Amino acid sequence: MAHDQAAVREVLEKARAEGRTALTAPEGRKICDAYGIATPGEGLATSAEEAVSIATEIGLPVVLKIVSPDILHKTEAGGVLVGLRDAEAVRAGYDRIVAAARAYNPEASIDGVQVQAMVGGGHEVIIGAVTDPTFGKVVAFGLGGVLVEVLKDVTFRLAPLSGDDALGMLDDIRAAEVLRGVRGAEAVNRRALADMIERVGALVGDFPEIAEVDLNPVFATAAGATAADVRILLAADLAPEPARLTREQILAGMNRIFKPRSVAVIGASGETGKIGNSVMRNLINGGYRGHIYPINPKAPEILGLPAYPGIADVPGEVDVAVFAIPARLVPGALEEAGRKGVAGAIMIPSGFAETGNVEGQREIVEIARKHGVRLLGPNIYGYYYTPENLCATFCTPYDVKGGVALTSQSGGIGMAILGFSRTTGMGVSAIVGVGNKADVDEDDLLTFFEQDENTTCVAMHLEDLKDGRGFVEAARRMIARKPVIVLKAGRTAMGARAAGSHTGALAGDDRVYDDILRQAGVVRAPGLNDMLEYARALPLMPAPKGENVVIITGAGGSGVLLSDACVEAGLSLMEIPPDLDEAFRAYIPPFGAAGNPVDITGGEPPSTYENTIRLGLSDPRVHALVIGYWHTIVTPPMVFAELVARVVAEERAKGNVKPVVASLAGDTEVEQACEHLFANGVVAYPYTTERPVAVLGAKYRWARAAGLLRG
């Protein structure tokens, strides 16, 4: 895909020299030509007669558009005329447009009138690019024309992007079916549209000074795609690229933070109720095996350990310093910790940027960077890393070891994570507060957890991302082997921002977050409980090998609800082939129903559940099972739970490893049955058909992103 970068550079430098941030339509056309973006035949006329000459040459009918660096919204200025079909109409139209423009803005500099071949037919779409404050350059695609900001049927991807990503955008809008051709209409040329999207992404990737690109409308037909109108805006100032450490540099610090040989507590206290006391008790009682150094200038010993007036007085090396002192004392203590060679400063104190003390936060970041200290926080509850029995926090201790790492930007959410983990017995490798994210952020944590042999899944609550591209890069590496679940707070727009283009107006924060996180392969959770349940369940489920999901249910009503839930979760219900249908029918009563769902009816004994579930697990064409159970005397809840756990274990031992989820309806005994199933690797929930299927859907979203599904 060859591009004429020199031609683009010439246009941009001319605009810059003239102090302009908006390109004229002819300049936009030159840039499109340089990047192979198809536009209609056109020319710039500076007189009515020249307009007639150009129109005759390119072919009538034509469109006339005012060309002025001072008039961005041409339609509002009366600067657009459409469908001029003869020379006289073009001649009169030229004079009319110029007069309207002068009336709209008497001070405007007018370069002339753009005479453009009239295009139409097919579907109007929008292709554009915008500079997002979190992710940088992103490309947009959606329905275009005058309704673009009303319908807002648009999707975003990071720029530059691949041809496959561009093709995926065509299927990611609600009106995707329209582009494929409905009611006898021709399908659009998908390759031509994807090619134009890819070229726009390349353009803004090559020229970061381009702030926004707006091709609207683009006429998409079976023959190709043509951008009828082009608007390009330049950035007044280029935002600096965020400084990024190498993966090796990140791991050097993170390994010492999560696997420290020694921890100092600055502000350690022997007085119950003090934060410094709680941190000390958690480190000692939690079983941390490294050295613990209490730092307190007024106490010779704390909780049976010798205390030191300052961290410089500690005789050995210190990997981690936990700060439990007021914000005003932090800079001096951090300077001392930096000179000591501390790798990680765990900043529990509040009173920094979250309260408006931006300068105080900037000061401690500068101190940390000067000494090569990684700073976690400030304004956090601390962190846990269970493989090291490390409980460096003032919150309640937690010691159930497992593979889930959880992070939160909020202390309150951190406590919710802790409570859920304790209630469900969820095994965790780490719980980490990131607070203000003055230094260490989600990118650093993902880089560590990706290679951490003790972590199999990461779930993150976040309110924002400091470096969206850095996060995507780290997430993509991890997702190849482990799921990343994100709960993004702030899904609703807090207010519209001024935008110079349709694309800019459409790029609301959450819309971009949603699409880019999906592009990265992240599983987004709609709420806190969803995030926690995904984190609890996904590590228990083996990855599916294909898309065929089968529902086996003892109640027709739950079968319908489970089917609805599968559609909602993006799962594909298998079309049961005749031989498998016959095999299922051999195990169910005549008044039951094969097909999918397989309805075994409610009065069946345990053997019917066992036979149908075993059949679904053993047939290689079935890739996942959803089981709907309802409480009967014939097959009580615990009988059902023990049976399912046994059959699943036996089939897994034979190599028939598939995800299985279950929905249990019944009296309170189903709660214990679900606990038994969870304890035996089968994800099960009482009183809901939606939750088990949503969890399975989350597993599928990760498996697709990781490229684990056949076909």
TrEMBL record:
Residues 29-247 form the ATP-grasp domain. PROSITE patterns: ATP_GRASP. GO terms for molecular function: ligase activity. Keywords: ATP-binding, Ligase, Nucleotide-binding. Signal peptide: none annotated. SMART domains: CoA_binding. Pfam families: ATP-grasp_5 (PF13549), CoA_binding_2 (PF13380), Ligase_CoA_2 (PF19045), Succ_CoA_lig (PF13607). InterPro entries: ATP-grasp (IPR011761), ATP_grasp_subdomain_1 (IPR013815), CoA-bd (IPR003781), Ligase_CoA_dom (IPR043938), NAD(P)-bd_dom_sf (IPR036291), Succ_CoA_lig_flav_dom (IPR032875), Succinyl-CoA_synth-like (IPR016102). It comes from the Bacteria. PANTHER family: COA BINDING DOMAIN CONTAINING PROTEIN, PEPTIDYL-LYSINE N-ACETYLTRANSFERASE PATZ. This is Acetate--CoA ligase family protein. The lineage of its organism: Bacteria, Bacillati, Actinomycetota, Actinomycetes, Streptosporangiales.
